């Protein structure tokens, strides 16, 4: 009888601990995918070469991040998880780029930011064909010493 009671208490404590940790910061953090099908992965040097050529940079971060610092000339087009509430739409991207076959570099705040991957996936789904996925994004650009504004 005492063993059964001890086992039940232990099971209850274990269930409580698991429920607490499941919602905590100990849960796995988001890491963006290394590649997005239908896009071209670019590193800092490749992104900078595109910058020098005048390729459009689309900053999908929230406006407050964009205001603090950005790649010069980048246009902020914030993406939200809920497509219906997102400023990042097929129409807004088409208006910005002027065509679905125009090159664009998408970036956010490094591998912990889901926005670049989501934006790239949506753009490909909508038929955009020349999207460059700058996975390491603004922190990498800045750390490399490239210009910021």
Task: Compose a concise summary of this entry.
The chain has 149 residues and is an alpha/beta fold.
Could you characterize the architecture of this molecule?
The chain has 149 residues and is of the alpha/beta class. It has one domain: Oxidized Rhodanese, domain 1 (3-Layer(aba) Sandwich), CATH 3.40.250.10. It is built from six helices and five strands; from the N terminus they run αβαβαβαβαβα. The protein has helices at 2-22, 44-53, 63-68, 90-97, 115-125, 137-144; strands at 40-41, 56-59, 75-76, 104-107, 131-134. It has a five-stranded parallel β-sheet with strand order 1-5-4-2-3, with helices on both faces. Strand 2, helix 3 (63-68) and strand 3 (75-76) form a beta-alpha-beta unit. Residues 9-27 have low confidence and may be disordered.
Helix vs. strand class: alpha/beta
Task: Enter the CATH topology name.
Answer: Oxidized Rhodanese, domain 1
Number of domains: 1
Helical percentage: 40-55%
CATH class: Alpha Beta
| Strand segment count | 5
Terminus-to-terminus distance? 71 Å
The CATH architecture term is 3-Layer(aba) Sandwich
- The CATH fourth-level homologous superfamily: Rhodanese-like domain
Give the DSSP E fraction (strand runs of 2 or more residues). Answer: 5-15%
What topology emerges from the helices and strands here?
Elements (H helix, E strand, L loop, with lengths): L1 H21 L17 E2 L2 H10 L2 E4 L3 H6 L6 E2 L13 H8 L6 E4 L7 H11 L5 E4 L2 H8 L5
Parallel strand pairs: 1-5, 2-3, 2-4, 4-5
